[in-house]
Specification:
Elements: H1 2-18, H2 20-23, H3 30-61, H4 69-86, H5 93-120
Helix pairs in contact: 1-3, 4-5
Length: 121
């Protein structure tokens, strides 16, 4: 919530500085606005660093998902038709349908297996 409030205040100050003539704010100086924005920008920079650390920790905790066959099967299911067009493989639609069908069946089989394992334990 602090980030949102800081962003709104900083954005409002920038907008007011830009449109100061149109709004009749001749007493507002750009230097004052920049001085007011510096603490907000410093705060946002430190919050961004903290957010990056939280993202890295979350990725480290979920690294097992990159080794999951379901992920790679799903990715290949999406990529095969695209790569056929983009790289000019000129594979017939029947071949692509077969590849995607095998990948989808493996995906569902693995999911059913995982569900059964989870229900047993």
């Amino acid at each position: 919530m602090r980030k949102i409030v800081t962003l709104i205040v900083a954005g409002g100050a920038v907008v007011l500085a830009y449109f100061r003539d149109k709004f009749g704010l001749q007493g507002l100086q750009i230097e004052q606005v920049l001085i007011a924005l510096v603490p907000a920008l410093i705060f946002l920079a430190f919050e961004a660093k903290a957010d990056i650390l939280r993202i890295k920790e979350a990725l480290a905790q979920q690294s097992h998902k990159w080794r999951d066959g379901k992920f790679w099967g799903g990715l290949l299911t999406v990529l095969v038709p695209y790569l056929n067009e983009a790289l000019g493989w000129n594979l017939p639609v029947e071949v692509i349908t077969g590849i995607v069908g095998v990948l989808v069946s493996l995906f569902f089989g693995k999911t059913i297996s995982d569900i059964k394992k989870a229900s047993i334990t």
